[in-house]
Amino acid sequence: MAFMIAQRAYIKLYLITMVEQHRGYGYEMLEVMKKEFEQYGYVPPQSEIYRALHELVQQGIFYRTKKLKGTDPKVDFQEIVLYHFTDDGSDKADLYKKQVKADLDRCIGMLHKAVHDNY
Predict the structure, then answer these.
(1) Phi and psi of 82, rounded to 5°?
(2) What pTM does this model have?
(3) Phi and psi for 25 in degrees, rounded to 5?
(4) Helix, strand or coil for residue 68?
(5) Backbone angles phi, psi at 42, to 5 degrees
(6) Per residue of the chain (119 residues), what is the pLDDT tens digit?
(7) Alpha carbon 92 to its chain's center
Protein backbone atom coordinates (compact mmCIF):
# COMPACT_ATOMS: atom_id res chain seq x y z
CA MET A 1 0.00 0.00 0.00
CA ALA A 2 1.26 3.46 -0.89
CA PHE A 3 2.22 6.01 1.75
CA MET A 4 -0.34 8.59 0.60
CA ILE A 5 -2.87 8.72 -2.23
CA ALA A 6 -1.38 8.83 -5.71
CA GLN A 7 -1.61 12.17 -7.52
CA ARG A 8 -3.34 10.63 -10.55
CA ALA A 9 -6.03 8.99 -8.37
CA TYR A 10 -6.60 12.35 -6.69
CA ILE A 11 -6.92 14.10 -10.04
CA LYS A 12 -9.25 11.41 -11.42
CA LEU A 13 -11.53 11.88 -8.43
CA TYR A 14 -11.92 15.57 -9.26
CA LEU A 15 -12.32 14.94 -12.99
CA ILE A 16 -15.13 12.47 -12.32
CA THR A 17 -16.87 14.98 -10.05
CA MET A 18 -16.52 17.72 -12.68
CA VAL A 19 -18.08 15.49 -15.36
CA GLU A 20 -20.89 14.68 -12.90
CA GLN A 21 -21.43 18.45 -12.66
CA HIS A 22 -21.21 18.87 -16.47
CA ARG A 23 -18.19 21.12 -16.11
CA GLY A 24 -16.62 21.12 -19.49
CA TYR A 25 -13.50 20.14 -21.20
CA GLY A 26 -9.89 19.32 -20.32
CA TYR A 27 -8.37 22.80 -20.25
CA GLU A 28 -11.34 24.19 -18.34
CA MET A 29 -10.99 21.36 -15.79
CA LEU A 30 -7.30 22.18 -15.40
CA GLU A 31 -8.05 25.86 -14.78
CA VAL A 32 -10.76 25.02 -12.22
CA MET A 33 -8.39 22.69 -10.37
CA LYS A 34 -5.59 25.28 -10.38
CA LYS A 35 -7.93 27.83 -8.83
CA GLU A 36 -9.39 25.36 -6.29
CA PHE A 37 -5.96 24.29 -4.98
CA GLU A 38 -4.11 27.59 -5.26
CA GLN A 39 -4.49 28.26 -1.53
CA TYR A 40 -2.73 24.94 -0.80
CA GLY A 41 0.22 25.63 -3.09
CA TYR A 42 -0.70 22.77 -5.42
CA VAL A 43 -0.77 23.20 -9.18
CA PRO A 44 -1.92 20.04 -10.95
CA PRO A 45 0.36 19.40 -13.93
CA GLN A 46 -1.41 19.76 -17.27
CA SER A 47 0.16 16.51 -18.45
CA GLU A 48 -1.34 14.64 -15.48
CA ILE A 49 -4.82 16.03 -16.18
CA TYR A 50 -4.70 14.77 -19.76
CA ARG A 51 -3.17 11.42 -18.78
CA ALA A 52 -5.92 10.94 -16.20
CA LEU A 53 -8.62 11.85 -18.74
CA HIS A 54 -7.09 9.41 -21.23
CA GLU A 55 -7.05 6.64 -18.60
CA LEU A 56 -10.69 7.31 -17.70
CA VAL A 57 -11.58 6.94 -21.39
CA GLN A 58 -9.52 3.73 -21.64
CA GLN A 59 -11.23 2.36 -18.51
CA GLY A 60 -14.63 2.85 -20.14
CA ILE A 61 -15.75 5.51 -17.67
CA PHE A 62 -15.69 8.48 -20.05
CA TYR A 63 -16.11 8.98 -23.77
CA ARG A 64 -15.18 12.06 -25.76
CA THR A 65 -17.11 14.31 -28.10
CA LYS A 66 -15.77 17.26 -30.06
CA LYS A 67 -17.45 20.58 -30.54
CA LEU A 68 -16.58 24.07 -31.65
CA LYS A 69 -15.97 26.46 -28.78
CA GLY A 70 -18.48 29.29 -29.00
CA THR A 71 -21.78 29.59 -30.79
CA ASP A 72 -20.92 30.82 -34.28
CA PRO A 73 -19.20 28.16 -36.42
CA LYS A 74 -18.26 30.87 -38.98
CA VAL A 75 -16.16 32.67 -36.38
CA ASP A 76 -15.33 30.10 -33.70
CA PHE A 77 -12.80 27.65 -35.10
CA GLN A 78 -11.37 26.27 -31.88
CA GLU A 79 -12.46 22.70 -31.36
CA ILE A 80 -12.76 21.41 -27.80
CA VAL A 81 -13.09 17.89 -26.48
CA LEU A 82 -15.89 17.32 -24.00
CA TYR A 83 -16.02 14.36 -21.64
CA HIS A 84 -19.16 12.40 -20.76
CA PHE A 85 -19.97 9.19 -18.92
CA THR A 86 -20.33 6.03 -20.97
CA ASP A 87 -23.55 4.03 -20.46
CA ASP A 88 -22.04 2.19 -17.47
CA GLY A 89 -19.41 4.82 -16.75
CA SER A 90 -21.38 6.39 -13.94
CA ASP A 91 -21.50 3.07 -12.09
CA LYS A 92 -17.78 2.53 -12.68
CA ALA A 93 -17.10 6.07 -11.47
CA ASP A 94 -19.10 5.48 -8.29
CA LEU A 95 -17.05 2.37 -7.54
CA TYR A 96 -13.80 4.23 -8.23
CA LYS A 97 -14.87 7.08 -5.94
CA LYS A 98 -15.65 4.60 -3.12
CA GLN A 99 -12.19 3.08 -3.48
CA VAL A 100 -10.53 6.51 -3.44
CA LYS A 101 -12.64 7.55 -0.42
CA ALA A 102 -11.25 4.61 1.56
CA ASP A 103 -7.72 5.66 0.61
CA LEU A 104 -8.43 9.31 1.50
CA ASP A 105 -9.80 8.28 4.90
CA ARG A 106 -6.62 6.30 5.57
CA CYS A 107 -4.46 9.28 4.55
CA ILE A 108 -6.49 11.69 6.69
CA GLY A 109 -5.99 9.38 9.66
CA MET A 110 -2.24 9.31 9.08
CA LEU A 111 -2.08 13.11 8.77
CA HIS A 112 -4.14 13.63 11.93
CA LYS A 113 -1.86 11.20 13.77
CA ALA A 114 1.26 13.06 12.60
CA VAL A 115 -0.16 16.41 13.74
CA HIS A 116 -1.33 14.98 17.07
CA ASP A 117 1.92 13.13 17.80
CA ASN A 118 4.27 15.93 16.79
CA TYR A 119 2.53 19.23 17.48
Answers:
(1) -100, 150
(2) 0.89
(3) -120, 170
(4) strand
(5) -110, 130
(6) 788 999 999 999 999 999 999 887 888 999 999 999 999 999 999 999 999 999 999 999 999 998 877 766 666 677 889 999 999 999 999 999 999 999 999 999 999 999 999 99
(7) 14
